[in-house]
Amino acid sequence: MIKNFDDMQKIGKDNMDASMKSFGAVSKSFQAIAVEAADYAKKAFEEATAASEKLAAAKSPDKVMEVQADYLKSAYEGFVAQSAKVGQLYVDLAQELYKPYEAQWVKATAK
Question: Does the pLDDT at position 39 exceed 80?
């Protein structure tokens, strides 16, 4: 009986350790995602401001269309790149969450 109680205590401790590691991974990953979002928002705002200034300085309708087309193209490409970056951060988060429990699962199924 004592051996079973000790085993249960160890399993409980191991589960708590795994949960704390997962919590740390979530915290770190969400912080990285927030930093990426803030950086992207700042960059997008700066690019939109620059495009607005170019539009205000445009002398002909052709130049206006060119500036708008360039801005839309760069904004779209930036959005796609940012989406891929954030998507990869979420994939990394899922992998980090799984790691601590993977070892627990291997131990539990080995017996």
Answer: yes
